[in-house]
Description:
By secondary structure, this protein is mainly alpha-helical. It has 14 helices and no strands. It has helices spanning 6-17, 27-38, 44-60, 65-79, 86-106, 111-128, 130-135, 138-152, 156-159, 161-171, 179-192, 198-209, 213-225, 233-254.
Amino acid sequence: MLWVSAPLATIAATVVAVGVAAPAPELPAAIAHLDDLHRRRDDRAAWSEQQRLVQSLIARAPSDHGVLWRAARFYFWASDDPSVPKDQRSRWGKDGWDLAERAIAINPNDVAGYYWAALCMGNYAMGLGVVKALSQGMEGKFRDRLSRAQALNPSYESSSADTAWGRFYDKLPWPKRDRKKAEEHLRRAIELNPYALRARVYLAMSFLDSGRAVEAKTLLDEVNAAVPGHYDAPEERRAKAMAAGVMPALYAKLK
């Protein structure tokens, strides 16, 4: 079914009533609406509408760079949802990665394709299993995409590439894991964006795994006290939900 925006709904109903198919919104207008939905993506109705619009736009404009990287962005958010089963998150991560690679092929000089390829790849790998992902050569691909994104635009997405690097180094299996590098990147992410909440959560999780529960609590307390709206309210609210999910493990370590 072809998606129509809210302002076009009344028009569509009138046109259909007289037996004429309703026109689809022009591509720039549809993309602008997709961006608006992205800014409200943690509202379930907005998320569902965004999903329908993404699928519609991929069908309408399968070679449009702007459509492809935005579709990858949507699938990252979907695959990042902790309430979704791991296998579904992994599939959505792979969908986003594939779309981002198509965006890169169309415009290899834009940051968006590389950035969302790396993040979606990470979620795909977490569901697949990190060891299995490494056996498929994904480490080099991840490093390449994220390095390229950072070189093209280090401030993209509130300078959050370092957050991805920190998570990467922390989640690698031993002996590749490097929690010193993870901490360096996550602290750098917080330095670049003092309001960054996800970086604090990831650093707290790394500290918990390293026997540094008191330091982890300081970071999680900062996240819990934060008021969303400084840089990306849905992302900030998700980070706060992630922090809340870590609290039981923290309290167990502090006993």
